[in-house]
Write a structure and sequence with these properties.
This protein is an alpha+beta fold and about 120 residues long. The chain contains 2 helices and 4 strands, in the order βαβββα. α1 runs parallel beside α2.
C-alpha cells in the first residue's frame, strides 16, 4: 500500500513523526491491503499559527481497486489524534463498502432456496 503525506504551509512534519503517522494508518488499514492501491494523507492546521484546541485536521483518501475512492476527515488537538481518528473512520468505511459488495457477490452465487441444483453428468 502506497501512502503519500501532504501538509499545508503552516505545518512541518519531520521524518520521525511522518513514520509514526504512517504506522498508525498502516495498522488500521492493513487488513484491507489487498483492496487499497494508494492512501493520501492531507494534514492541516486550521488556525495556522494562532493556536487553539482541536485545530489539526487529517483528511485520508483511499484509492481502492474496483471501487470509488473513499475520503474521510477528523479534527483533533494533535496530528497523532487527528490521524488516529481519520484512520478509524476510513477503516470502518472501507469495511462497510467491501463487506456490502462481497455480500452481494456471495448472494448472487448462492442457489435459490427450494430450487434443486442440476449437476452435469
Amino acid at each position: 500500500m502506497q501512502l503519500q503525506i501532504n501538509t499545508d504551509q503552516s505545518l512541518k512534519v519531520h521524518e520521525s513523526e511522518a513514520s509514526q503517522l504512517r504506522q498508525i494508518v498502516e495498522s488500521s488499514l492493513g487488513r484491507f491491503e489487498e483492496y487499497i492501491t494508494r492512501v493520501e494523507m492531507h494534514l492541516s492546521d486550521e488556525n495556522a499559527n494562532k493556536g487553539g484546541q482541536d485545530d489539526k485536521r487529517c483528511v485520508l483518501e483511499a484509492r481502492l481497486e474496483g471501487y470509488k475512492p473513499v475520503a474521510v476527515s477528523h479534527v483533533a488537538g494533535s496530528l497523532t489524534l487527528a490521524v488516529e481518528g481519520a484512520a478509524g473512520k476510513l477503516a470502518r468505511s472501507i469495511d462497510s463498502d467491501v463487506g456490502r459488495r462481497t455480500a452481494v457477490r456471495r448472494h448472487r452465487t448462492d442457489p435459490v432456496p427450494g430450487e434443486t441444483e442440476v449437476k452435469p453428468e
